[in-house]
Specification:
Blueprint: H1 3-22, E1 26-27, E2 33-34, E3 53-54, H2 59-67, E4 72-80, E5 92-101, H3 105-119, E6 130-133, H4 134-142, H5 152-170, E7 173-179, E8 189-190, E9 193-201, E10 204-211, H6 216-232, H7 242-251, E11 254-260, H8 261-269
Parallel strand pairs: 1-4, 6-7
Antiparallel strand pairs: 2-3, 4-5, 5-11, 7-9, 8-9, 9-10, 10-11
Helix pairs in contact: 2-7, 4-5, 6-7
């Protein structure tokens, strides 16, 4: 990390804020310490000695603000994950998340396309963004169909070993869209696919978006399944956020995305490691 990179990063964040402010989004701030993280396998929130956890995402808290009446919101801030460290990972990192009521993942895709075009004016990341459907990618490159032969371990392995390298060969920005129902996470399922996309640049995942699931009963069932799997793997058990579940029907319909600021700055600047684009602290 050097002074010029710090200035470059600050400029990126400033342009992101200007982009969303100009489009009528409200910048919000939600707690970093939370009582009930969303239970997701292999995503571990650091526990706080005085109670609760450091957030891996502000998602649940931001959706509560949608229920309170805000229509378009964004937040830039720190997030945390235990056990993640490497050239593209750090236990503490910075994300922007934005959400829209009465929108779908396609609306969020158009947001990101416009944002990326604005940020990529230096030429390093310029060019059209493309889309590839998950089913097509696995059939063509991995030689099997996750819709008819679902296997979580095989899906995850091939994503890292086969699909992402092919996305890197394509170069530039690629949306990997329409996931198997079994990989829906917090996304709406429609027409046999999860309305979810991930955005890659040169094979590196930068963002993950959903048409958000707003069915409280289905969300509770998915949380319960994820919680059971976490227990079976010996991972920390998280309580349900009952307030969040009770407010989902009020939200009605929405879409949102999480975009890693550190990885985005890496893509825009050509940096090869996260340590080049952010100040790294001391972590266990």
């Amino acid at each position: 990390m050097n002074a010029e990179m710090l200035k470059f990063r600050a400029g990126v964040v400033r342009r992101i804020r200007s982009f969303f402010d100009a489009r009528g989004f409200v910048e919000v701030e939600t707690p970093v310490r939370i009582a009930a993280p969303a239970p997701e396998c292999h995503i571990d929130c650091p526990p706080v000695a005085t109670g609760g956890f450091l957030r891996a995402s502000p998602e649940l808290q931001m959706k509560k603000l949608l229920a309170a009446g805000l229509e378009r919101i964004y937040q830039i801030g720190p997030c945390f994950r235990d056990g993640e460290r490497g050239k593209r990972h750090n236990p503490e990192f910075t994300m922007i998340e934005w959400y829209r009521r009465h929108a779908t993942y396609l609306d969020i895709q158009r947001d990101l396309e416009a944002l990326f075009a604005e940020l990529a004016k230096d030429g390093k990341c310029a060019g059209a963004l493309r889309s590839v459907r998950v089913r097509d990618a696995y059939r063509q490159w991995a030689g099997w169909d996750p819709w008819t032969e679902w296997d979580q371990d095989r899906f995850d392995f091939d994503m890292a070993a086969v699909i992402e390298p092919r996305l890197k060969e394509m170069g530039g920005g690629v949306f990997l869209t329409d996931y198997p129902v079994a990989a829906a996470s917090l996304a709406v399922v429609s027409g046999g696919v999860a309305e979810r996309w991930e955005f890659y640049f040169d094979g590196i995942e930068l963002a993950n978006a959903f048409t958000e699931l707003c069915d409280a009963e289905e969300q509770r069932a998915r949380f319960a399944a994820a919680r059971a799997e976490r227990r079976s793997l010996g991972e920390a058990d998280y309580p349900f956020d009952e307030e969040f579940l009770s407010l989902l029907p009020v939200v009605g319909s929405a879409a949102g995305v999480a975009l890693g600021i550190d990885r985005l700055v890496m893509a825009l600047s050509g940096a090869s490691s996260i340590g080049e684009v952010r100040v790294l602290g001391q972590h266990r």
